[in-house]
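Data card: per-record layout.
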Amino acid sequence: MDINTKSLMKNAFRVTKHKGITAIRIRVPGGHLNVKYLDILKEIADKYGNGTLHITTRQGFEIPGIDMKHIPEVNELIQPIIEGLNINQSEEKEGYPAAGTRNISSCIGNRVCPFANYDTTSFAKRIENAVFPNHYHVKIALTGCPNDCIKARMHDFGIIGMTEPQYDSYKCVSCGACVKNCQKRATGALRMENFKVVRDHEKCIGCGECVNKCPTRAWARSDKKYYKLVIMGRTGKKNPRIAEDFIKWVDEDSIIRIIKNTYDYVDKYIDKEAPNGKEHVGYIVDRTGYQIFKEYALKDVNLPPLAEVKNHIYWK
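The structure for this 316-residue chain is written out next.
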């Protein structure tokens, strides 16, 4: 059977160790899926695969054991999932049109978790709509608070939820619970002065711990959503590293613009001789330098007044 492996991979099918056998990758932006789609995955696994399903580290699925001759039938079967999750497609609707940008993963967010500062799934789907399809190798993850349950600092772009806590001194009974909690669980950004709480903005990481701890609701989350954007974390064979802070107190629109600008940057500077046309974006930043990346990333971006951009980043 004559197979174009590049087309196969761009259609989100994997080249496996078994000749003529592939595995389909299922995107689940934000890791949130209606259970009705599990019936479709089961049908594919039973009818065309080997009866198993692999849950990936990026919150998607892989169905292994599929004969390559059945790719058209599998693509037809997954169409309701693609449409139900509002994933962009080509007009031909022959499965996924790309596999470069990995599934955008997120923690469960504030739909469930009391620590999360925003709806991670909704933001993940918004990013998905903005950047997919794309063939460049980019990893994006979202977490609702600095606890970072999704390990956002291991990705090219890690989006960490923040809030600018709002303090109502009239509701405060000077119990000190928020101050003690901030000292033990956060950064010690709060202190008592004249029986009222004072917040040090420079120390505050916007975690929202004070909001959760206050018994009288003197603290509240800000109406505006803020984030910390960390960049260029990675695993891999050489120089694995943790992402470093790029911008604090940044907004959603700016993050999406920055990520889209990064694709233009990759298009300009990617190593054309890289294996399979792939080069980790972090290695491109290493080669060109942070300042060139920053220039591209911030083009036409209108950051909020509160935003703090790092002048220099030195990855460890």
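Known properties of this structure: The chain has a mean pLDDT of 95. The two ends are 47 Å apart (CA to CA).

See the next section for split statistics.
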